[in-house]
Structures are given as structure tokens and as C-alpha cells.
Amino acid sequence: MSVSAKISNIARGSLHDGPGIRTVVYFKGCGLRCRWCHNPETFSQKREILFSPTKCIFCGACSAVCPEHHTAGENAVTFLRDGCTACGRCADVCPTLALSLCGEDMDMDTVFAAIEKDRTYYTASHGGVTFSGGECLLQAEAVADIACRCRTLGISTAVETALFVPWENIEQVLPYIDLFYADLKIANSEKHRQYTGQDNALILENLRCLSLAHSNIIVRIPIIPGVNDTADDLEGFARILRSLGPGIRQVELLKYNILGASKYDAIGKTWVRFSDTIQSDEEMHALCITLEARCGLPCIC
Ligand code: SF4
Ligand code: SF4
User: Which candidate, 273, 268, 292, places its Cα nearest to that of 49?
Assistant: First the structure.
């Protein structure tokens, strides 16, 4: 029987999660709670109902199947989350996807069938598959299973990870992954705990081991205004990067992402806004130049 995993989404045709055209498999569940995260629907490994009131046409189908948790009037709809078992019946009958179920148990035969559909695009564009999340390496057995199958067919593989997992999980997928995108969020451990819920000791140890064990790693740093963009923060990043092994190919700075706000509404959580604007290209370029000079690795943004 094939391995199964909690999957929140499979997105085909992505151009942003590695080289070429890619299929991105989003695993559900993460051990960190980064306060700027733009995929909060992947925090929990449990199934959840996503609710987007702006898509509602007040048809009343949800309240007909589950009056305990839904009321729908002529121009208003409410969803009472407390006590919802995420059975998905309301999402099944919602005609506009205002209600949707996030987090399916999928077997890897099914996931692989979805990946295989775009083989011709991967070949033409030098693309492949990217395992993301959430933290895909919390479900390392499933990632290893499917990445091994991709290897057999010559489909390129990448992982996007925050590395907050036991080293054994990383070791399990190592032989089958062509490219690692490894997050580095905050250099100061106490500040890391303050903004992500965990200190960074395990992450830094894993990054060090990975940089010695694999030769194609891109370190990604999300730059969050007022959180990790001071001269001290950059010096902290540079100190860590200088201490790593030869496997780090590049460092990539990412702009602050404000696209997650509606997702927080959809899962009934509060979004924290760190800035009203994203950084300009010039601001990012200046950070890149500074970091590159201090860490000695190529930096892009
Ligand atoms: S998921 Fe099930 S329990 Fe929750 S609101 Fe919908 S129908 Fe009711
Ligand atoms: S089923 Fe969907 S569209 Fe209809 S009232 Fe409920 S949330 Fe709105």
C-alpha cells in the first residue's frame, strides 16, 4: 500500500518555486508559527474549513446540511467554527467555493499521478516538482517515497523547508532531492522564538549539517520590516552563513509578502501586519549588496 500524507494543495504550472515550470505539493502542518507566514492554512496538520464570505451568494445550502454551524439569510451568512468537525459536507454543497475543505489524506500514488501529468512541461522548461508547505519534511517518508519515483523518471525535485524537523527526516530525503530551498528567518535565537514560537538552535544545526551533506542549497531569507532588517540582523545572518559548509550555492532575499491577509480571515485567525508596503527593489538591492559583502556568498533578491 502506498504511503499517505496530509496535503493542503497541489498547484500545477508554478513559475515561482524553483527553475522552469513546476508542480508544487503543499504538505499540511508546521512546527513553527512565523507571525508573517502567508500560508497559515498549513499551520495545523488537521483538516480545516476555509470560509471566504466575499464569495458567498447566500444560497443557504450550507445551513441546510449543517444548521448548527451555519446561518444564511438574504444578505448575511455566518459560520460558527467552534465544534466544527471539518467533515466537509458544507463545502461539498457550497456552489461558489466560499466554503472549502483544506487538508486531505492523500496516498502517494494519487499525488504522483498529478505530478506526472506535466512531464512534458518539465522537460521543455527544465522544471520539475517542489515539495513545500507547511513543513513538508515533517512528512519525510511521503516526500522520500514520491521523490524517489520522480528520480526514476528523470523528474527534477526541490524542497522548500524551514528545517525545524529532526535531522533524520532530512537524511531520509537527501538522496532524492536535487535542490533545497532552506529558510533562515532570524539570526538571534531569542528573537527567533519571539516571532516564530521556537528558538533557532535545531534549524542552525540542521542547516550546518545540510551544507556539508548536499551541494545545491539556496538559503532564503524573508525580510520582514522592523523584525530582521537592521544592520545587526544582517551581521547575524552573515555570521551564520560564513560558518556553513560548501553546499550553499546562493542566498536569496525575499520581499515582505502581504498576500496572506485574506487567508487568515478564511481560517478564523488574526493577521499581524508588519508594514503597509512592501520594500522597493532599491531597498532590497542595498540589503543584498551589504549581505553579500559580509558573508562572501552570491546574494540575489
Ligand atoms: S465541516 Fe461539517 S461540521 Fe463543520 S460546518 Fe461544515 S458540515 Fe458542519
Ligand atoms: S453554501 Fe456557500 S454560497 Fe451558499 S450560503 Fe453557504 S457559504 Fe454562502
Answer: 268
Q: Ligand 2: does its nearest atom lie under 6 Å from the Cβ of 88?
A: no
Look at strands 48-51 and 70-72 and give their pairing.
unpaired
Which ligand 1 atom minimizes the distance to the CA of 84? 4
- Domain limits of the chain? 4-45+103-300, 49-101
Distance 260 CA to ligand 1 centre (A): 24
Each residue's pLDDT tens digit, 124-142: 999 999 999 999 999 999 9
CATH of domain 4-45+103-300: 3.20.20.70
With a 6 Å cutoff on the Cβ, whether 191 touches ligand 1 is no
Ligand nearest to the CA of 102: 1
- Residue 1 predicted with pLDDT over 80: no
Residue 47: nearest ligand to its CA? 1
What is the number of other CB atoms lying within 10 angstroms of the CB of residue 126? 11
* CATH code assigned to 49-101: 3.30.70.20
> What's the pLDDT tens digit per position in 2-53?
799 999 999 999 998 999 999 999 999 999 999 999 899 999 999 999 999 9
Distance 102 CA to ligand 1 centre (A): 12
CB 180 within 8 A of CB 214: yes
State mean pLDDT over 252-271.
Answer: 90
Regarding beta strands 179-183 and 156-161, do their DSSP bridges make them parallel or antiparallel, or are they unpaired? parallel
How many A from CA of 100 to the centre of ligand 2? 10
